[in-house]
Amino acid sequence: VQLQASGGGLVQAGGSLRLSCAASGRTFVYYDMGWFRQAPGKEREFVARVRWSGGTTSYADSVKGRFTISRDNAKNTVYLQMNSLKPEDSAVYYCAAGPSGTMKWDSWGQGTLVTVSS
Questions:
Q1: Which end of the chain has fewer CB within 10 Å, C or N?
Q2: Distance (Å, whole) CA 86 – CA 69
Q3: For residue 105, what pLDDT is reported?
Q4: What is the pLDDT of residue 4?
Q5: Rounded to 5 degrees, what are φ and ψ at 69?
Q6: Which positions ≥6 away from 41 have C-beta within 8 Å?
Q7: What is the 3-state secondary structure (H, E, C) of the chain?
């Protein structure tokens, strides 16, 4: 599956952004989808994950209660709604796909930059 992330930008602290990740390929529905991020000088970290059915989600502790991951299998798209953004959320955000239930991410999007100003 090929992934194309979009929706990043510059936002003030406390603001919101919604990232989108469009997937190509008819097997999208069989993949778990995730969002990761990488800030300058730091390693890539897990942000959120949604199972293939959309019914099960998980989040990094740092974003729980602020971010929401969702997917629309009819549109082959996964979303990350980010609210109450903080400067430490600034990073390049990547979407990823992996075979359902494996926690292995074998397809990655190109990344979209999120910058949160204080």
A1: C
A2: 18
A3: 93
A4: 95
A5: -100, 140
A6: none
A7: CEEEEECCEEEECCCCEEEEEEEECCCHHHEEEEEEEECCCCCCEEEEEECCCCCCEEECCCCCCCEEEEEECCCCEEEEEECCCCHHHCEEEEEEEEECCCCCCCEECCCEEEEEEC
Whose tokens are 């992330």? That residue is 5
Burial of 54 (0-12, 13-18, 19+ CB in 10 A): middle
Say which amino acid occupies 79.
Y
Both tokens assigned to 77:
């798209």
Average pLDDT per 10 consecutive residues for the chain, totaling 118 residues: 95 98 83 95 96 90 98 93 98 95 90 97
Report the pLDDT value the prediction gives residue 26, as an integer from 0 to 100: 66
- Residue 10, both tokens: 């510059």
